[in-house]
Design goal:
This protein is an alpha+beta fold and 248 residues long. The protein has one domain: Gcn5-related N-acetyltransferase (GNAT) (Aminopeptidase), CATH 3.40.630.30. It has 7 helices and 11 strands.
């Protein structure tokens, strides 16, 4: 398992309705974590190669292959940020140590009419290519993107952010974010959502729950009664990290 601070737990659903429990982690810089992220990058690239071959023979929508390639770039960015110690990123992993989704985000202070305001941005967000809608097979998962959005929103609210910005990759991404309340607020397709009420609305279908092992609240998404007991306690993860050797 990739170690770090657990900020969310939940259950995604396959197209057939089968549950896939996961946890959302802000990854720490360790040798084991960097190796696992590299291994996941290789696994994602194998899926991308398959999708690009299918797209060339018109057996797959080229946009799906494009989103898959983008996803691998986001995962590589997260790995590089972890290596450099750059804030902020999170990842979703299942209990077989597979990374299901990744995201980067940030926040900053600015002054408007003499008043200091804090804004945030969801810079990049992507899920495992094999779980994307429109991919071949039955591995698509529902709920990963929503869970990452909810976890990022919780982090933004805790830091006093009053507006969240993003730039959707394509029409499918635009529709995803529009359904969550984002509206056009700048040139070039920039979207945003403003106000605490609007940001709180991003935690749709999820709620906060005290989380003893990590000494803080986590976002719980999807069948919470079936997922709360399945998280990996932080003590176990810390022991694993110590055994593997941490980067200093």
């Amino acid at each position: 398992m990739i170690t770090g601070v657990t900020i969310g737990i939940g259950t995604a659903q396959t197209a057939a309705g089968l549950p896939t429990p996961y946890q959302i982690v802000t990854p720490e810089k360790t040798v084991a974590n960097l190796a696992q992220l590299a291994a996941e990058g290789k696994r994602w690239r194998e899926a991308i190669a398959e999708f690009e071959r299918l797209a060339l023979t018109a057996k797959l929508d080229p946009q799906v292959a494009k989103r898959a390639r983008f996803a691998e770039e986001v995962l590589a960015t997260v790995g590089n940020n972890v290596l450099l110690g750059v804030c902020c990123q999170l990842l979703v992993q299942d209990y077989a140590s597979r990374v299901l989704g990744v995201a980067t985000y940030g926040h900053w202070d600015s002054f408007e009419q003499g008043q200091r305001t804090r804004s945030g941005a969801i810079n990049l967000q992507a899920i495992d290519p094999r779980h994307l809608a429109g991919t071949p097979g039955t591995q698509q998962l529902r709920g990963i993107g929503t869970a990452m959005t909810a976890a990022i929103s919780r982090q933004m609210l805790a830091r006093g952010v009053s507006a969240v910005y993003l730039h959707p990759l394509d029409q499918a991404a635009y529709e995803f974010w529009s359904r969550r309340g984002f509206g056009i607020c700048g040139r070039g397709g920039l979207l945003c959502i403003r106000g605490r009420t609007g940001i709180e609305a991003l935690i749709d279908g999820c709620h906060l729950q005290p989380d003893g092992p990590d000494r803080g609240d986590v976002v719980v998404c999807g069948r919470p009664g079936a997922t709360v007991g399945q998280r990996v306690p932080v003590g176990i993860m810390e022991t694993q990290a110590t055994q593997r050797g941490a980067v200093t």
